[in-house]
Amino acid sequence: MWFKNLRVYHFTQKFSWDETSVTSLEERRFSPCARSEPASVGWISPLGQEDGPLVHELSDFVLVCLKKEEKVLPASAINAELDVRKEAYQNEHARPMPRKEQQSLKEDITHQMLPQAFSKYGITWAIIDLTGQRLLVDASSASKAEELTAVLRSCLGSLPVKPWGAEHPGHHFFTEWVAKQTPPHPFTIGFEAELRGERDDDSVVRFKNHDLTTEEVALHLQHGKQVTQLALEWSERLSFTLADDYAVKKLRFSDILKEQLDDVHAESRAEQLDRDFALMSAEFSELLNQLEQALEIQATVEP
C-alpha cells in the first residue's frame, strides 16, 4: 500500500465525503472480465477482502483502491489468423480482400480470441485529503492517474479537480536551485537530475548518483540547459524526484520513519493498514504543504 509515486490534484470547489459517496462506489465494485470483455475496471477493498468496504477512512483522509483487468492478445496472433483468412478469401474470390472487410474481420478475430486470452491486472491507490482539499494518486503516468479520476467522477457525478502545481513548469525553480545550490528550507538537493535544452529537439543529460555541485553540471546550465527533474530530500524523512509537471516520483521513506513503524506491533491487517495509512497520509500532507510554500503554489478552492 505504500505509495511510490504521487500524481496530485487539487479540488477547485469545496469537496466533502459522506455515506452517499461511499455508496456510490458500490456501483463500480470490481468484477472480473466476462468471456467477451476486453477489460474491466472497478473498486476493491483496501483491506483486500472480496466483499469488504471499498473505502478506508481515518481522520480527514479517505483511502480507495482501483483494480483493472485487461485481456492480453498478442497482435502477432491476431495478424497471423487474419493472414490465413485473407489468403483463403483471395483463393476463393480470385482477388484480395477489400481493406474495409479486413478491418471488420480483424475485429471479429479479436472478439473470437478474447475468451482464450490471458489477463493482466493492475491496482491504483489514491488518497483523498479533505483538509488539504487534494487528491493523491499513486501513479507514475498521467494517463493512469486520469483513469482513476475518471472512474471516481463517474461514480460521484462530479469531481472538480485540476492538476496540482505552480503557474510555470518546475524547471523555472529547479534550474535556479541547482545553479545557486539554494533549495528552499527544509529541502536538500539529492544526487539525480535531468537536464534538457530549451528546444524540444535539444539533447538530454541525465545524472544518477552524481554530485550536482560539480563544474560539469554548471557548464550544462551555462550552455542553456534547464533542470526538468530533480531529486530532493525532505527533512530527513522522505526522498523523491520532482518532475517538470510536478509529479512526485521515486518516493522513498527514510529509516527514521521505518523505525517508527517497527516500534508498533499490529494485531491484524486492519490495524496494520491503519498504522501505515495514518503515517503515510500525514507525511504526504505536510510534504505538499511545504512544497506549496517553496513553489509558491496557490491552490484556491471556491466555497
From TrEMBL:
Cellular component terms per the entry's GO annotation: bacterial nucleoid
Gene Ontology MF terms in the entry: double-stranded DNA binding
Subcellular localization, as worded in the UniProt entry: Cytoplasm, Nucleoid
Transmembrane segments: none
Family matches, as Pfam families: RdgC
Top-rank taxon, per record: Bacteria
Entry keyword annotation includes Metal-binding: no
Record keyword Nucleotide-binding present: no
Keywords attached to this entry: Cytoplasm, DNA recombination
Single biological process term from Gene Ontology: DNA recombination
Family listed: Belongs to the RdgC family.
Protein name (Swiss-Prot/TrEMBL): Recombination-associated protein RdgC
Lineage of origin: Bacteria, Pseudomonadati, Pseudomonadota, Gammaproteobacteria, Alteromonadales
